[in-house]
Design a protein that fits this description.
There is one protein chain. By secondary structure, the protein is of the alpha+beta class. It has two domains: 2-32 and 155-173; 36-151, no CATH class. The chain has helices spanning 2-30, 153-173, and strands at 36-43, 48-54, 65-68, 72-78, 83-85, 94-98, 105-110, 112-115, 121-124, 128-132, 141-150. An eight-stranded antiparallel sheet has the order 5-4-2-1-11-10-9-8, with no helix packed on it. β9 (121-124) and β10 form a beta hairpin. The chain is elongated, with a radius of gyration of 24 Å.
């Protein structure tokens, strides 16, 4: 009986140690700072692009919070022929979000989002992205769609940790290792 108790005791000690390590990891991850949020354009007409910003940019939870484009940490858009990158961003413009939900949802752009070195302009609207090619009278290229947010790394980590917890609980119910 003492051998069985000893084996079960070792198993419980290992479980407690593993859970303690996981708890320390979560505590350090939670205090590590804000997450980077990435929004990817899902639309038609061959447009592709994304922008990223730090979640700490959201300071006043609201259903219509304006975030300055100077808060962006990454930016890229193209229609296949015309391209905009991070250096083209209009720092005086802003993007509206519903920051009462997690992750905050894109609502609308505010003015010209970016202007590339050729003078082409990119504009975010409620449900469309527009490119206005420089020097083309009346030339507007439209893509209708939405911005989808990519899950935060912390959310994915918590999901993985939950699955690990379920697996450990199932293993514990089967009894000690022999």
């Amino acid at each position: 009986m003492s051998d069985e108790y000893s084996l079960e005791g070792k198993y419980m000690t290992t479980m407690r140690t593993a859970l303690g390590v996981v708890a320390l990891w979560l505590a350090s991850a939670a205090g590590a700072g804000a997450d980077t949020l990435t929004y990817t354009w899902v639309g038609n007409n061959g447009f592709a692009g994304y922008f990223s910003l730090d979640s700490s940019a959201f300071t006043n939870p609201s259903t219509f919070e304006w975030i300055s484009e100077s808060s962006l940490s990454a930016f890229y858009f193209t229609d296949g022929a015309i391209t905009f990158d991070f250096t083209d961003v209009n720092l005086a413009s802003a993007i509206a979000f519903d920051s009462t939900i997690s992750p905050p949802a894109y609502i609308d752009g505010g003015g010209i989002t970016a202007t590339n070195t050729s003078g082409d302009r990119l504009i975010f609207n409620v449900d469309q992205v527009q490119i206005l090619p420089f020097g083309v009278a009346g030339g507007v290229e439209n893509s209708y769609g939405t911005f989808s947010s990519v899950p935060e790394p912390a959310s994915v980590s918590l999901l993985g940790l939950g699955l690990l917890g379920i697996a450990l609980a199932a293993r514990f119910r089967r009894g000690p290792l022999s």
